[in-house]
Amino acid sequence: MKNTHDRLDLLHTFIRIGESGSLSKAARLLDTTQPTVSRRLLELERLLGCKLAIRNTANFSLTDEGRSLLAEAHDLTDRWSGLSQRLQGGQSRPEGTLRVIGPSGYGTGFLTDAVTDLRAAHPQLRVELTLTDRVVDLAASGAECWVCVGEVRDPGLVCRTVGRMERVLIATPELLKRTGPVTLARLPQLPCVGLIPYVTGNVRLINRAGRSRIVPLDTPIRTDSLLASYRAILNGAGIGAAAPWMCHEDMQAGRLKRVLPNWWLEPIGVHVALPPGLYRPARVTAFVEALRQRMHALPGFRPAA
């Protein structure tokens, strides 16, 4: 190998091979020939002293070492690109593959909208959106950012607060007919739908004057899924909590009613958690901005200062 630039070229070729799963597809993406791609792969294997792929006429797959290198190669090429851009005083454009993790409820709403906005502005960008309501090990996932609700407990992550989301109590009109008027005093005796870990046990309610009350909830149904919680509320299973952006249309249509309209649950923070480090690929910065713009238009959202 002549210099570091050659090694980066080999890594770039290997990324295309790993992502496409085929030497011929990688060659088309790189606008070169399959023998050239095959030769570069062989050169990289010789340089590293290990087998990176199993290739024959019927099958192509990465070895364990190849899969490990693919994860590392993304980071190495991104860092080099960022260093080059900073030294040249330029601004890199969003490109490559953005890997995002987010909660399922948000993902089926404005998070997907933010991703499609981003792709519309930068068609060359690819996005992998993974939705889960579980706590994420960002380093192990291989994702570049995690949109999370509530407190980020991992001190090793860089946390950017997008803003805070209001939450209100809601229920179906049919349920409220059966329960009668809902008051703060009666709320602990009424069935509620729990959302783990945000709406369960004791919750804090705040009124317009800023006064707060701690109220215990009886939650015979609990779930860690925002979508399942909301579905249970719509089914009349109990009083529950939702952000205004989620329940706005159902309230307008009369399918849901506000409970205790002078009280709100404590607003909850929405954050973008990032791996540690100073360099952020342009695609990550562009995604965070697209998310901010989408969320700023949501009812009940309070942007971060």
TrEMBL record:
Signal peptide: none
Protein keywords: DNA-binding, Transcription, Transcription regulation
GO BP: DNA-templated transcription
InterPro entries referenced in this protein's UniProt entry, alphabetically: LysR-type_TF_proteobact-type, LysR_HTH_N, LysR_subst-bd, WH-like_DNA-bd_sf, WH_DNA-bd_sf
Isomerase recorded as keyword: no
A single MF term (Gene Ontology): DNA-binding transcription factor activity
Residues in HTH lysR-type domain copies: 6-63
Coiled coil start-end: none
Family designation: Belongs to the LysR transcriptional regulatory family.
Protein name listed in UniProt: LysR family transcriptional regulator
